[in-house]
Amino acid sequence: MKFQQKLVKDTELTELYTPTQIEKLYGYYFIVDCWHHRVLYSEHMYDAVCDWQVLDDITLSGPHSIASDGEFFVVDNTDRHQLNVYKLVNGSFELIQVVISVGSRPHKVVFCQQRKIFMVLSSYTQELYTFVNNNGLLKLHGRHKLNELSGVYCRSFSIVNYDLLVCGANGDICTYDIDAGFSFKNKITISEKLTGRHGLNEIAFIDNEYYLSATPSVLLKAKCLDGFTTGEYDVVEFPVAMSTPYYFSSFDNATWVCSIALPTEFVQQENEQASYIIGMPEKNESDYSAESNRVMFFSPKANDKSITRKNVYPESKSGFDSYAGVTLSVFHPAKMVEFNNEYVAEHYFITAETNLVKGNAAMKLKMNDLAIYYYHKVKEESDLLYRLLNVNIDIIKRRANA
Asked: pLDDT over 70 for what percent of the chain?
């Protein structure tokens, strides 16, 4: 799916509203502008936001993060419980695949270099999904239930050496061994006095220190993880008051922190919420010696158009019409089979022999081991994990026979 190329200044939303992540991936800079339901990108970090390009503001609902293996650029489409997969084609990004039913509110995606897999955290179900780049498409590789965080809302995770650190909003940080099938190692619990009323956002290991963010207005760092429980930590001062740090990233000799809008209970009016991104220089970087923190992008107040956009999702939310020609992946997470000591999902593929039962009954599908199917239009969005209703059967046959 090709998008019309446009700059931010060519839209009605020329500022940021709750940016959750800024990242540098393969020569491009990205900002995930969560409450504007869009992702922005630029080849030049220091361009004003209005001069950045819009990657996608049509199919996303409340995205939080982006990751890449150099070929795929994967975004968690949080409020649709999906993953969007983009590819750079002739200098512009195209949506090539949508992975459906990735838990409940996938909240963070990371590419693990050591295992060459994408990892995605389902915030409400406390599950870690892993995906592989398989012949030009993203395929589910495994699903791991994080039982130690059962029932706890989880906003993020980080990879530190060969361990996975998962943050629970209740202050729990659980460590899992990546190379041992994500087996549980240990857990620490950080006091609510530190994590704030709304809990942990992220824990990151940058420049040999652990950074911790929480809502509202908590930003700490410590030499070791236990320092957050023993009191051996430092408070990192924000250059702007009334803000909430969110995800961290490290590139261009600095640590970057996105600041999201405060929860409405902390402000008199919704338009008082500020959004900005700061850069904290790494040690011994003379280029930044004049400043301890750099405020790169600052949106002091949310205007009425931003607030409306936050509360009114993109038009395509009600159906898949805008996804014409995009590959959809459907997998059955309840049917995991062991293969080479890994657990992989049974995938569905619609064939020409598909039998459609009209009305409320589900489709009867013949399955094979292919990971994907193509379609052009679904008239009504349904639970595609178990059923596909009201499908144009002629289109399916034509695609299957192609």
From this structure: 69
